[in-house]
Amino acid sequence: MSDLLANLNPEQLQAVTLPPQHALILAGAGSGKTRVLTTRIAWLVQTGQVDPQGVLAVTFTNKAAKELLARLSGMLPLSFNQSSRGMWIGTFHGLCNRLLRAHHRDAGLPQLFQILDSADQLAAIKRLLKALNVDDEKFPPRELQHFINAQKEAGLRPHAVEAWDDYTRRRVELFTEYETQCQRESVVDFAELLLRTYELLERNEPIRRHYQRRFRHILVDEFQDTNRLQYRWLKLLADGGQEGGACLFCVGDDDQSIYRFRGAEVGNMRDFEREFRVANVIRLEQNYRSHGNILDAANAIIRHNTGRLGKNLWTERGAGEPIRVFEAFADIDEARWIVEEIQSLVRDGMSRSDVALLYRSNAQSRVLEHQLFSAGIAYRVYGGLRFFERQEIKHALAYLRLIANADDDTAFSRVVNFPTRGIGARSLEALQDAARTWNTSLYATVPHLAGKPGTVLAQFVRLVEDLRRDTTRLPLPELVDHVLDASGLRDFYRSEKEGQERLENLDEIINAAANFLGEAGADAEALAQPHSLLADFLAHASLEAGEHQADAGSDAVQLMTVHASKGLEFDVVFLSGLEEGLFPHENSALETEGLEEERRLMYVAVTRARQRLYLSFAQSRMLHGQTRYNLRSRFLEEIPQGLTKWLSPPSPRGMGARSGFGQRMEPPRSGFAAKAPQPSSRSQDFGGLRVGQLVKHAKFGQGVIVSAEGNGADARVQINFGVAGVKWLMLAIAKLDPA
Ligand code: ATP
Ligand code: MG
Q: Which UniProt keywords apply (predicted)?
């Protein structure tokens, strides 16, 4: 046991060995919160204070849950791996899924219910609006999705939503219709997983009491990002902090709260302290992750936020290298430079997997991926184009879902005519109308459909029935293999010109199924019921979407959004796209709260790096089909000059001039998108000025030239002056100086 506690500092030791009571560990990035949480579980188990069965730990991602288990098995003797099964470790969604499967009848669900990820949910909502003939310009599907999820996350069913105006009343009606549709199709969206479980525990006393008695210690990582419903869920399981209930041990960092848009509330920390009468709030201030320069930069950035709970991190590791800053002309140059740096790091002996490329928005990964691919550097993307969200994978999963649950209309609609089998839009419309009239699922409606639609659709139903019959005895990987062939998917992609990669991806599902079997450690009884195992696998696919790829463990550079990087650490971090409008994001930069959340995100990004941090930005960037000219991010200006080193040569165009760095530059309200200039206009010279160049105007201050037209006395340029707006100025009149 002494080994377990050997390297902890006094505050960490105190936290790990607290007597059984509620506790809050409030501490900055890299101070060992996750390590403390893990060590506490190991310590509690090892000292016999709790059975593994009595432990429930909530992590933020499946990857984090796996890491926690791996760290634990390193800390505890081999026999632990036997007993760890009893421990419940996972994400909120994963744990809820487990509870709902175990008590599906009490929760009003069939055993093989399916999970909708957010893309499926959106598709389901679109389908609903269409069926009800609702104008989707008046009720945009995405907004409705957001509305429904927000209600559920606040714990509200349609009848409980307060609607004062017609518009909201209509939205609530649609919410009701959506619920009916989901129930009919036996599908559950992410927010529903939580709400359903919460209601189950709340209403069903025997089940609630069972779990309240079972779990003695509930531990929560990244507590700052729990939403209201999640907090209430925890409270219910811990018996509201009553005597005899579980001890709730929460670790978090208010400076890393980055899910406000998803309803997370830092207020939960305060409520937790009050409602559970937390006697112990422990702060950890020593950072073990990053070198001093990186830490100083993070501290300097986050200091610009207000209303913090306040803490400052320090390290014994020494200042380390300066933070490297690079300015590129265009996003492609930025990506090329990043790839060159990685190549040189790898030549010097760095493992690719120790390098992470972070960005604010998924759309930024494309150009990075392209460069990495061309250079032959192995890489993995978290999130972004998620493995389980790829078109071909979704098609294959849809067949599998129909085997598990034929009433899943989303799956039905997706593949009823894919690969094409001559089922026309008319037949489908007839089917949908009939299903609506009879209030039955599409699948169940087919046999009652007369005429030609009935005949062609019956063939599809027969296909699904054959698939089900032929797979009842097959082990999961073979089941998947069979479906890929019998559905015609393999043949279809074989005949496609660029289908090779898709075929490989399809094979990857078989591997995923095999891995799933291995990890789930399915017992003989479960193996005898392939279709129930299949449902578990499909749930796993929905929940693990986006994390699958990066788990491959091979030596690959890791790409992910800053959101996805939370809790992780890497020797080398590249953070690209530090531009106004991109980071801080234009949607958030306008209001203080949004800006502060962006800054917390920046803090998360910077604190992922152990040894070396690269920050970069580009003067122009192609995003969503448009070229944008952005000023560099204000977050760069918030880093003290002494901590950075500029790699790009001082540029005559001014923007990269070393002298300019550190000066306060008025940030623009948002990024500015302009139509892509013709290559000629970019290189064309306008009285010594060119597109992309930074200039100074006596009245409007600093700005970037975003386009230009005309010649001689008629020449005019369009300039983005940030706060002062975007203006067209005549060159002959306006006094413009290169900045
Ligand atoms: P984040 O806020 O980013 O989630 P965290 O507070 O959870 O960070 P950890 O990931 O637990 O921090 O720890 C950061 C790093 O510091 C890890 O590599 C961990 O092993 C190491 N570490 C933590 N405490 C100590 C210690 N007492 N001695 C040596 N290394 C430590
Ligand atoms: Mg952590």
A: ATP-binding, DNA-binding, Helicase, Hydrolase, Isomerase, Nucleotide-binding
Distance CA 131, CA 410 (A): 13
Residue 601: closest CA among 625, 618, 577: 577
Identify which of 385, 386, 361 has the alpha carbon closest to the alpha carbon of residue 546: 386
As for the ipTM of the complex, it is: 0.99
Q: Report which of 502, 512, 564 is spatially closest to residue 538, judged by C-alpha positions.
A: 512
How many whole angstroms separate alpha carbon 462 and alpha carbon 402?
Answer: 12
pLDDT in tens, 515-542: 777 766 656 666 667 788 888 888 887 7
Rounded to the nearest 5°, which phi and psi values hold at 702?
-85, 145
Region of residue 284 (left: phi > 0; alpha: psi -120 to 50; beta: else): beta
What the block records as the tokens of 634 is 């204000």
Q: pLDDT tens, 236-275?
A: 999 887 888 999 999 999 899 888 766 667 788 889 999 9
> CA of 185: how far to CAs of 413, 612, 635, in Å?
12, 50, 47
Residue 669's CB is within 10 A of a number of other CB atoms, namely 16
Residues with CB under 6 A from ligand 1: 7-9, 12, 27, 29-35, 253, 256, 288-289, 567, 569, 607
Pick from 598, 8, 572: which is nearest to 291 by CA? Answer: 572
Residue 9 to residue 582: CA distance in whole angstroms: 39
| DSSP string for residues in 499-511 | -HHHHHHHHHHHH
Closest atom of ligand 1 relative to the 12 alpha carbon: 27
Is 615 within 8 Å of 331 (Cβ atoms)?
Answer: no
pLDDT in tens, 437-474: 888 999 999 999 888 888 889 999 999 999 999 999 88
Query: CB of 330 within 8 A of CB of 337?
Result: no
Q: How far is the CA of 62 from the centre of ligand 2 (A)?
A: 14
Helix axes 425-438, 451-471, angle to 10 degrees: 80
Structure tokens at 240: 């509201």
The phi, psi pair for 582, rounded to 5°, reads -105, -45
Residue from 7, 24, 35 whose mutation best tests the ligand 1 pocket (most atoms within 8 A of CB) = 35
For ligand 1, mutation pick of 26, 31, 33, 288 (most atoms within 8 Å of CB): 288
Task: For the beta carbon of residue 629, count every other beta carbon within 10 angstroms.
Answer: 27
Helices then strands, counting H and E runs in the chain, come out as 29, 22
Helix (H, G, I), strand (E, B) or coil at 218: strand
Burial track 264-277 (b if 16+ CB lie within 10 A, e otherwise): bbbebbeebbeebe
Residue 119 burial (C-beta neighbours within 10 Å; 0-12, 13-18, 19+): middle
Task: Look at residues 195, 328, 297 and name the one whose alpha carbon lies nearest to residue 573.
Answer: 297
Quickly count: other Cβ atoms within 10 Å of residue 111's Cβ.
15
- Euclidean distance between the first and final Cα of the chain, in Å? 63
**Annotated catalytic residue, options 11, 120, 222, 254:** 222
Closest alpha carbon to 361 in 80, 587, 159, 98: 587
- Identify whether the C-beta of residue 620 lies closer than 8 Å to the C-beta of residue 329: yes
Q: Are strands 694-697 and 716-720 parallel, antiparallel or unpaired?
A: unpaired
- Tell me how far apart the alpha carbons of residues 6 and 490 are, in angstroms, rounded to a whole number: 55
3-state secondary structure 364-408: HHHHHHHHHHHCCCCEEECCCCCHHHCHHHHHHHHHHHHHHCCCC
